[in-house]
Amino acid sequence: MTQQHTPILPVILSGGTGTRLWPLSREGYPKQFWPLASDRPMLVETAARAEGPGFAPPMVVCNEAHRFLVAEQLRGHGARIVLEPAGRNSGPAIAAAALLAEEAGPGTVLWIMAADSAIKDVPALHAALGQAAAAARAGRIVTFGMAPTAPETGYGYIEAGADVPGLPGVRAIARFVEKPDAARAADFVAGGRHLWNSGMFVATASVLLAELERHEPAMLAAVRQAVAGAKRDMDFVRLDAAAFAAAPSISIDHAVMERTANAAVVPAAIGWSDIGSWAALWEISPQDGAGNATLGPVELVDARRCLVRSEGIVTGVVGLEDAVVVVTDDAVLAMHRDRAQDVKKLVEQLRAKGRKEATEHRRAYRPWGHYEGLILGERFQVKKIQVRPGAKLSLQKHFHRAEHWVVVSGTAIVRRDAEEILLRENESVYLPLGCVHRMENPGMIPLVLIEVQSGSYLGEDDIVRFEDTYGRA
């Protein structure tokens, strides 16, 4: 896409957890970081749609806990990463982005989008964006309305009004409609006046801030204070936690779009899906002659219209129709496709029982790489650890456990109290309880090792950090 104006600033909101895509999507590693609609993670796909002439480097607003995931996946994209110290819905997140964007000029056009939507027709998206940007420069706050392909009850709807004079392709908004029941959704589709609300917005920073000042002055004041008190370190902008927490939790739809006189919509047919459920993913996935969508080591016999995904182990399905089967290394989901919206209830049930599988994967990501639990027994635990080239763990000690590291591949430099030890493949080191230690990968390939922990307490909170490259406490 080319523009004669100041480049459009993509603002990517990456705060969701994608509960309905459990067991793949969980709080610790939600759906935007997974490859779902292609072989690239959703976040990377989203950023790639907003690259090239006419676009500024993206701004990403994300959960502080996901900061290193975002930084790693968007390495090379020049992203500016804004950290929400607490989830306050889309209104405060967008307000913070608009305030930061205003530094580049109040007329900066923001293209605000979720990190986890799929779009098949990017040229059509850019054409619609051109119409929306023209309307934004004329003082409008524009959303994209998707022509509904089915009576979907999981989306909000927009009733489109009359054409806006002088702005081709742009229409006024008659009203917003919350998620309807099936009968009402069918009426919307048949009537032809209603569009799915995509959750994408285009507006200048100045217009957005003026409308927030008009309709949500207390929220804007709190966010303004959070931005004024922000700290900048590494690739991150850390909003002031106390000020941001004081902002009311409200969506941009309720804060501005349903109240402003400047709202407009660009109807678009771009192959959009928010992939809000396993049923939605089945709809957009390649299917075989029997309507089955599969990924991973999957074998089917007499199955029809099923979605089957395995992240590792062989998964067989025989004689099922309209089923969803998802297999990860620590959980299995099996359900009728029509019950896709009820996965959230299952996650809530698991959470109520204190099951860590509700929110955490066995693999945990850190700024230096990742680790995953292999065996957990009484007073011992075995983990597999992978450290990125050039990365290092914090300088630390433990009060309740000793550790034994065995290098599987790569090279490690280990500090153990006053010693510095070079370890190669098939070599090991013992770290007694209480010793101060650190591991670093000085090589050009990932360092992989097995860690055996033993002691009276093996929790991740038994750690005292003396020094950390990544600014963790």
UniProtKB/TrEMBL annotation:
Alphabetized Gene3D superfamilies for the sequence: Jelly Rolls, Spore Coat Polysaccharide Biosynthesis Protein SpsA, Chain A
Residues of the MannoseP isomerase/GMP-like beta-helix domain: 300-350
Domain Mannose-6-phosphate isomerase type II C-terminal: 354-468
EC code(s) of this entry: 2.7.7.13
Domain Nucleotidyl transferase, residue spans: 10-288
Catalytic reaction annotation: alpha-D-mannose 1-phosphate + GTP + H(+) = GDP-alpha-D-mannose + diphosphate
Keywords (A to Z) from UniProt: GTP-binding, Isomerase, Nucleotide-binding, Nucleotidyltransferase, Transferase
InterPro entries the UniProt entry points to: GMPP_N (IPR049577), Man1P_GuaTrfase/Man6P_Isoase (IPR006375), Man6P_isomerase-2_C (IPR001538), ManC/GMP-like_b-helix (IPR054566), Mannose-6P_isomerase_type2 (IPR051161), NTP_transferase_dom (IPR005835), Nucleotide-diphossugar_trans (IPR029044), RmlC-like_jellyroll (IPR014710)
Signal peptide feature range: none
Kinase listed as a keyword: no
Coiled coil regions in record: none
Domain of life of the organism encoding this protein: Bacteria
Stored NCBIfam families: GMP_PMI
Family: Belongs to the mannose-6-phosphate isomerase type 2 family.
The protein's name in its UniProt record: mannose-1-phosphate guanylyltransferase
Organism from which the protein derives: Roseomonas fluvialis
